[in-house]
């Protein structure tokens, strides 16, 4: 008979006790009453690395693609049935499997809620941040969607890592930097004026000087939105300092491209021009 009252695991202490489970206890930990148990067992068995090597090399990728749907069907109360499988897929040798999970980790976070996300998904998310660019782009494209689900203190920890997105395996991968600029525009709503000035401003200025025009154009919008955010904040000193820096760095630049950058930034939000002069 199925036992639907088993607690789900979501912290380190539970993980340590789970490692000492007997095979029978391990089987019971994956019991649920939402779908036929045989169907779930078949899905879980397909993530076995040995099967991927002998049956189908793409099977793990398909399982990773389907995992958010399976998690939604089972519900967060049955996350204990999928947790080990998710961690197995997240450490798969094939980068395509990890990439698939990276693109959907924000959706899984919505399904699981803040507590399970903080305990089980954040470590996986941190691992993806240090992965190949093909995997990192997955978390970057939905960076705002994931970070907004975290507690404020936990969210601020990632301010120190945002600059790492400027470094890629291939410097010609300009779309990576363009996506970073797009995400930073969205992230402005999640952070305080001081955090924006201290951490996001240097990244924005770096993107404004990018060699690729498409990246620069998005960055102009980023800087303009940053000015707006700081202008509307209660602390006005940040916006004054930012505008002074824009004037010194671009408006009075000895290169015509720098002065052109200043004009483009003003063009994006022309109603701020009067504030400069």
From TrEMBL:
Residues 1-29 are annotated as: Disordered. One of its GO terms (cellular component) is cytoplasm. Keywords: Repeat. It comes from the Eukaryota. GO terms for molecular function: protein phosphatase regulator activity. The keyword Protein biosynthesis does not apply. This is PP4R1 phosphatase. It comes from Sapayoa aenigma.
């Amino acid at each position: 008979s199925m036992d639907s009252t088993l607690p789900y695991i979501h912290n380190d202490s539970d993980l340590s006790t789970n490692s000492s489970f007997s095979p029978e206890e391990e089987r019971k930990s994956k019991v649920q009453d939402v779908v036929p148990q045989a169907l779930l067992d078949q899905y879980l068995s397909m993530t076995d690395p040995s099967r991927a090597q002998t049956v189908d090399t793409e099977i793990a990728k398909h399982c990773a693609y389907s995992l958010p749907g399976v998690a939604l069907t089972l519900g967060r109360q049955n996350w204990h049935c999928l947790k080990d499988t998710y961690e197995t897929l997240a450490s798969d040798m094939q980068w395509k499997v990890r990439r698939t999970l990276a693109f959907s980790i924000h959706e899984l976070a919505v399904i699981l809620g803040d507590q399970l996300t903080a305990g089980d998904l954040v470590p996986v998310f941190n691992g993806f941040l240090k992965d190949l660019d093909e995997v990192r782009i997955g978390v970057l494209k939905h960076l705002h969607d994931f970070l907004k689900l975290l507690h404020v203190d936990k969210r601020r920890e990632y301010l120190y890592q945002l600059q790492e997105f400027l470094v890629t395996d291939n410097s010609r991968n300009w779309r990576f930097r363009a996506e970073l600029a797009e995400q930073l525009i969205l992230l402005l709503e999640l952070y305080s004026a001081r955090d924006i000035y201290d951490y996001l401003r240097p990244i924005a200025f770096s993107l404004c000087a990018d060699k690729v025009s498409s990246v620069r154009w998005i960055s102009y919008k980023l800087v303009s939105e940053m000015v707006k955010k700081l202008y509307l904040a209660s602390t006005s000193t940040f916006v004054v300092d930012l505008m002074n820096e824009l004037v010194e760095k671009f408006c009075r630049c000895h290169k015509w491209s720098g002065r052109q950058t200043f004009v483009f930034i003003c063009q994006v939000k022309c109603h701020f021009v009067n504030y400069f002069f």
